[in-house]
Design goal:
globular, mainly alpha, E3_Ub_ligase_DUF913, Leucine-rich Repeat Variant, 235 residues, 79% helix
């Protein structure tokens, strides 16, 4: 599907996207429930290993489903409405954003990427997503603290950039001060390991964000100066 618009169109018209969305919803609920049960139970030895393996498999399936939806949720000649997928998929992405610690950086990154692709492929869907609370949930997940994961920190500028394509989204990004996430990841020790792997793609993503969203450049420069001052003070 990555390379064939005809295949994507056929897959959509035969109801494939609805099946993927439904299965994703089931698996996301399973991860949340399973992670919660592990948090509330004392497990040791073989039982603990089996639980860990099962949770890993569940998360891997969620990642595969998110990637498949990224390929399948848009086709130029489809007879089905894109908006129907936006409405049905959004609650599941909301659950991932609001439970990001249970899913980890890779799934969180995949969910942010899917949200960004939905907006880029069909900018007219933003108002629907906004009314359903998806951009707000994403911004809240950023403001609450970014996961110390290379993929989590590098996906955020792209998510912010997609939201900023809409004037309402740009205003929400400004009001939330979500761009301040870069101060935390450059000055908090818990991000050191993630930054070792993610520094180059993060820098490229932030540069692209500020290049395309000119109204954020002033705030971006101020934050970079704040980072320099903080690191200089600590040393």
């Amino acid at each position: 599907m990555d390379y064939s618009n005809t295949a994507v169109t056929l897959f959509r018209d035969l109801g494939g996207v609805e099946l993927l969305v439904h299965r994703l919803q089931i698996e996301v609920h399973r991860v949340i429930d399973f992670a919660g049960s592990n948090d509330n139970s004392m497990v040791i030895g073989e039982c603990s290993k089996n639980n860990g393996d099962q949770l890993y498999i569940q998360k891997r399936l969620v990642r595969v489903l998110l990637k498949a939806l990224g390929s399948a949720t848009y086709a130029t000649n489809s007879t089905r409405s894109q908006n129907s997928y936006d409405v049905s998929l959004t609650p599941t992405l909301l659950m991932i954003f609001s439970n990001k610690e249970k899913f980890g950086g890779e799934i969180y990154s995949s969910a942010v990427t899917l949200m960004s692709e939905m907006i880029h492929k069909d900018p007219t869907c933003f108002n629907i997503l906004y009314d359903l609370g998806l951009p707000t949930a994403f911004l809240s997940s950023v403001v609450a603290g970014v996961l110390p994961s290379p993929k989590a920190i590098t996906c955020i500028p792209n998510g912010l950039g997609a939201i900023c394509l809409n004037s309402k989204g740009l205003e929400a990004v400004r009001d939330s001060s979500a761009l301040r996430f870069i101060v935390d990841i450059f000055t908090d020790r818990k991000y050191v390991m993630a930054m070792n792997e993610g520094i180059v793609p993060l820098a490229n993503a932030v540069e692209e964000l500020l290049r395309h969203v000119s109204s954020l450049r002033g705030a971006g420069v101020d934050l970079i100066i704040e980072i320099i001052n903080k690191t200089a003070w600590e040393h």
